[in-house]
Write a structure and sequence with these properties.
By secondary structure, this protein is mainly alpha-helical. Helix content is about 85%, strand content about 0%. It contains one helix and no strands. The longest helix has about 30 residues, at about 5-35. The chain is rod-shaped and about 50 Å long.
Length: about 35
């Protein structure tokens, strides 16, 4: 595994984790302001 592909895979993982955290954050904020009834 080359250094560049190693960095690329780390960036992809970070992007993936960031998207998951963002989705969870948005969902929790929506639940807080608009609780399901």
């Amino acid at each position: 595994m080359t250094y560049i592909s190693y960095c690329t895979s780390i960036l992809e993982k970070a992007n993936f984790i960031d998207r998951i955290l963002h989705d969870n954050f948005v969902m929790s904020v929506e639940r807080y302001f608009f609780p399901p009834n």
